[in-house]
Each structure stands twice: as structure tokens, then as C-alpha cells.
Amino acid sequence: MNKRILWGLAPIAIAVGLAGCGGNAENTDTASTPSAMDGAPVGGEGAKLAGSVKADGSSTVGPITQAMAEGFQEGQPGVNVTVGISGTGGGFKKFAAGELDIADASRPIKEKEAAAAKAKGVEFIELPVAYDGLAIVVNPKNTWTKSLTTAELKNIWVAGSKINNWSQVRKGFPNKPLKLFGPGTASGTFDYFVEEILGKGGKCRADYTASEDDNTLVVGVSKEEGALGYFGYAYYEENKAKLKDVAVDAGKGAITPSSETIMNGSYAPLSRPLFIYVSTKAMERPEVKGFVDYYLQNANTKVADVGYVALPDTLYTTIQKRFADGTTGSVYGGKIEGGTLESLYGAK
Fold it and tell me: What is the pLDDT of residue 16?
């Protein structure tokens, strides 16, 4: 399961009624919060919490955090959790400025983002919460594209590409206009796709329909016969009646994205972990700590409910301990690539 990481998503605002940043210093507060499973009270035996929790960032991670917020509110109606979507990069900017309790991210924090947070005195705990993959999608009327190689994807999307017809993609494809849809440059999904498909230092063409809202991309591809687009696998699953997925061949045969192929890493190179980053200062507030405890204790079931792939239970146990121990900083050191999550976080 050789997981590589991806990069984040979109400004639009989603708010969920409920309650609601980075560095490397070690947090020594190891006090734990009682179980918040199934919305049960946290913060003490039968305790009811009050206050707010503010999360923002990746549109890929946003639905998970939203689902967690709704579940948490059932047991803690006195806490107001807001979930915004400004993209992974946008979320980290707000996080570094001390405006957020939690940053949702579809990639690890970059070195410059961690440095910006540190400069503002913002320390964070990095917590992977799920796996996701990028789905390559076409219009259902597209009968000719069952798979694409990573080389073909690169030829289509690289800066300076003049490919604007399917006949230019592969010999035997029809003479039909090719219309491209994808995330905007503020998106972590965009960053990840560029890194994995175009290569380090690669530049993406600008003449495509870009949106930070994945639903806009779904609508665009569903209405254009010659469309080609990409976004998070969960959005494809949610809208697969309107779309057709395309298998990706990275040199070992064409692989279709699924929970299994994303989890085992065979859907390469477009599989990724998803994260939340929690401000250590915010963690001192019972409502924030209670919400994150609830999040981690329920992720293995709620992640699948919103179309993502859960981590192994042993890894969730390790991540819960990382949070309880207040282990700060990122294991990635500002890089996209790393080993498996188990090796990076020391899961047994």
C-alpha cells in the first residue's frame, strides 16, 4: 500500500450548524477526552459542551468533516461547528493566520505553509483520516474511451498542449471536440494531479474550464459529449449515474478506481490520503478536543458513508494516540511523497 499524497481544493462556503493551525514543538498535554462515539457527551461523564469549532479547507475533506459535525451535534447541540470550503491552500492560509481551529487538507502541509504558521505561533497536530483517489471521467455518451495511459493524460493536460480533439489523443479515437474540466489552481486536487501526471515542476495548460466546486465540474462533464475531467473519487461515486469513469494505465495495465484499488495502492498514481490539521491552541478548548475525539473515533464508519475509503483500524488507533499525546508537526517534512501511512506514523 504505497500511498502518495495529494493536494487540496475549493473556495465556496458550506456551513454546518455545530461548534468551531502548524509548527514542530512538542505538546505535552496528554489528557484524553471520554468517548464521543455516536454523538455521546464528551468532556466528562454526561458533560454537555458549548462553544464553537471552525473548520475550513479542502472540498474533498469537507464532506467528511461535515458528516462528523452533524453526528457530533446530535450529542452536543450546544456546540456550533462551521465547515467552510476554500481549498487546501486557502484553508492553510486561514489556519496559519489563526483564523481556524481545524484545516481540512487533501495533501500534507507544505514547508512554506508550516513556516507561515510557525511565524504566527500556530502549532498543529497532523491527522490522516481517510483515503481517496482521483477519478478521470468522461460523458456517458463517450463510447470510445475505456482507459487512458498516464502518458496520454500528460499530453492532454501539459502546458502548451494543442490537443483539442479526441482524434489527437489516440489513433482510432473519433473526430470529436475535446473539452476539459478540472479543479482550479487553488485546489489541492489540482496540485496533486499536476505533480503525479505532469511531473515535478510540470505546468498545466490554462485553457480548460476550471472550478473550485467539484459539483460544477460534474455538471460540465455530464453535459458535454466530448468532455474529459478529473476530481475526487467520492464525487464520482456520488454522481456516477451522470458520468463514466476511465481506467488509468501507469504501465502495469489499466486500473479502475474503487475502494479496494485505492486502499491497496494499485490505482496508481492517483490514490491519496486525506488529513485534518488541528491547532494546539484550539485543542485547549473542550468543544474542539471533544469534536476531534469524536471525529477520530467515528471515522472508520462515517468515512465510508460519504464515499471515501477508511484507514485500517490499527492506523486509526495510532492516530488517536497521536492526538491524545499532542504530537505536533508533520511527518512529511513539506514533501508530497513518503512511505505508507503505517510506516510514517508508526502504526503496528
Answer: 39
